[in-house]
Amino acid sequence: MIHKELPIFLIVGFLTVLIDFLTYRTLIWLQVLDISIDKALGFLVGTLFAYIANRFWTFGHKSHARNAALRFVILYLLTLGANVLVNELVLNIVLHLGLSYRILLAFLIATGTSAALNFLGMKFYVFKESRRQKETASIPTETLFSLVIPCYNEAKNLPLLLERCAKISARNVSNLNIEVILVDNGSSDESPEILKQLLPKYSICRSVRVEKNQGYGFGILSGLRAAQGDVLGWTHADMQTDPTDFLTGLAFFQKQGLDIFVKGRRYGRPILDVFFTIGMSLFETGLLRQMLWDINAQPTIFSRAFFETWNEAPYDFSLDLYAYYQAKTAKLPIHRFPVLFSHRIHGTSHWNTDWRAKIKFIRRTLNFSLQLRRDLKNEHHRA
What we know:
The protein folds into two domains: about 1-125; about 145-380, Alpha-Beta Complex (Spore Coat Polysaccharide Biosynthesis Protein SpsA, Chain A). The chain has twelve helices and seven strands. By secondary structure, the protein is α/β, with parallel strands linked by helices. Helix 1 (about 1-30) packs antiparallel against helix 2 and helix 9 (about 270-290) packs parallel to helix 12.
C-alpha cells in the first residue's frame, strides 16, 4: 500500500503547509492577536487538517486503532523534537560551509527526516489497522449478495462490462452467492438489444429495464428494489471502477456481519479531480456536521435492512451522498478500501465532461445538501 499512500501523504503535507501559512498570514493581517499566537494558531489549524486528511484520505482504507488522535499528538511531538535535534546536529557538523548554506542544508535534512518519521509513524502507529474485530454471528452460507450497475447508453461498454462481471465468479474463492443486476436506465442506444443477446451467456447476471431515464439515482434505486440479496451494493458501468471490487467489499461483511457500511476510496485520479473531491468533502462535512470523504467513490455496499430505512432518496447523483450520510447518522461502522479509478474505455461521462458540467453537478448537490440540512433542523425542532 505504501506506493499508493505516499503520494497522497505528500499532497496532504503540501496542503498542510499551505493552510498553516495562509492562516498565519491572515491572522497577522487582521492584527488582532500577538504574532507568536498567530503562528501557534496557524500551526494548530494545519495540524488539525493533517490529522483529518491523513485519517480519512491517506490511510482511510483501514479500521484504525483506538486513540488515534492521542497517538497523532504524540507522533507530532516526537517528530517536532526530531526535526529540531537533526537541524541542530547538521548545523554543528557542517561548520566549514557558509552560514546560509548550513541553514539551508540543515533545514532540508531535518524536514526530510521528520517527514519520513511522520509517514512511518502514521502508517504503523497512528493509523495502523486495529486487530480488534467485532464479535458477530457469521453470515449464513445461503446469504445472497446483489450488485446493481446502472447503465445509460453504455452499448459499447456492455460486452466488456459483462466479461468483467463474469470474473466475479472466477475470483469468488469463498463461493459466495452473488447476483449482478444491470439496470438499463432508459437507454436510447442499442443497449436493450445487446443485453438481450449477451445476458444468457452470464449466469450471475440479469437486467432490469427503466423505460424513461429519470436520473442516475432512480436507476440504482430501481435495481435495488429488484434485487433479492440480503447485502446490496452498486458501482458504475463506465469501467472506471472494476466490478470485482465488489468482492473486496464483501470480505468486510464476512468478518464483521451485516450491520456495517462499506465504500471504496479512489486512487489514481487526475490531480484536479482530487482537489475537487477535497473541496466537496470539506464542504459537505462542514454543512452536514458528519465526516464525509470521497463521497462518490464506488462500490457502495450495505445491508437490505439498512436500505429499507431510506425515505425519499434522491433520483440524481446525490444518492451517493444520501446513502453515505444515512449510514453516518445511523452510526453504522464505516469501512473503506482502496479502489483504482481508471479512464473510461468507451464513450464519455454523462456528467463529468468539463467544468461547466462540474458546476452543474455542484449546484444540484448543493441544493440537495441544503434541503437535507433544513430537514435536519425541522426534525430537531419537532423533537
